[in-house]
Amino acid sequence: MSQIKTEIIGVGTELLLGQIANTNAQWISERMAENGFSVFHHAVVGDNLQRVVAQFEQSAERSDVIIVTGGLGPTEDDMTREAFQKISNLEMVEHGPSMDKIEAFFKKRNSVMTENNRRQARMFKGAKVVENQVGMAPGMMVSHQNSMWVFLPGVPREMKAMITNTVLPYLKQHTGEHTVIKSTMLRFIGIGESRLEDELKDIIHGQSNPTVAPLAQNEGVAIRVTAKASSEAEAFELIESTKQQILSKTGGHFYGSDEQSLAEKVFGLLKNRGLFIAAAESLTGGMFMERLVALEGASKVCSGGIVCYDTKVKENVLRVSPETITQYGTISEQCAGEMAENSCSVLGADIGISFTGVAGPDAQEGHSPGTVFIGIHAIGKETVIKKCVFQGDRNTIRERSVIKGFELLMNFLEKEL
Known about the structure:
Layout: E1 5-11, H1 13-16, H2 23-34, E2 38-45, H3 49-62, E3 65-69, H4 80-88, E4 92-94, H5 96-108, E5 122-124, E6 128-130, E7 139-144, E8 147-152, H6 156-175, E9 180-188, H7 193-199, H8 201-205, E10 211-216, E11 221-229, H9 232-250, E12 254-257, H10 262-273, E13 277-281, H11 287-293, E14 302-307, H12 311-316, H13 322-328, H14 333-347, E15 351-357, E16 371-378, E17 384-389, H15 394-416
Parallel strand pairs: 1-2, 1-3, 3-8, 13-14, 13-15
Antiparallel strand pairs: 4-5, 6-7, 7-8, 9-11, 9-12, 10-11, 15-16, 16-17
């Protein structure tokens, strides 16, 4: 199979300053992969002619297809054309149809067109014009030496239309690229990245096509499996074969694929079992229940939640016994157990989950920040309580508590119910 090296360059100081996120590169990479082009490099360069020229020179040495977004507007800091002319010595000419479109735009709005707008109609002689059906500035494709250069506006909706309608069909036709690249993410929880990689080392070291790579995520660890093939069906067949090899070694920690979240996994388990859940949340302050309620159809599994941050709410609303709090404290296995159990009775649920602990920054009841107790109770089942110690700032501890709660609940539902 051909190995066409593709590169994406974003031009604009606003990208470097963080004023605008470079979502263009992500979107283009996804579309290129779908059409069989391997993206080897992303680059961002500010609005400085010398630096843009240097970037273009470097890109020309290493890439077959170079897609540049931004720097095609009417102002002096739009210098993508000038930079490319420096390295190519190609002549620039005014493209008549593009100029007519720009003039018509201002005429229709009864506005005076300033002379600098003519810059947007400049093209390299012999370039293929990429019509901008959404905005004014056209794009162009230029073959120079051993590389194909694609210049597009940086406005996402303009760029996306031009890539889809013109650029990709043209590149596929002129490069002979007829393969596809497909990826899937396999998501795991309850196992660290290093251990997961160790368990899959034979697969990872022997990879060729598909490729396999572990990635740390907010919710556990992911394995990305990427296949290149002559058709989507063949690519998915390769991915499925590798997926089964991976799951045969680590399937006990697997919870979903691609964009599936832990909340969605738990939601599905609750729905399939016809169970309603209630939550009693102290340090998490409703974060757990919010994740479930955000999912479509949440009313089919959620009874409700109680944010019992204050001790009086634990006693008066959730009915945790004063004796438990006096003897063991609010941050304890005993309190977490009663919170989970009583959430079921108070809210009429089949299963309850509780969170109590110290988010920080100060210690509380003799417990250091990060100490968390999570309780799970189902009608007719013995209550399960897990003590955890998390690292991080206040919000990180709360976030990790919620993720751990979903992990424990998933395991409980799969094994106990």
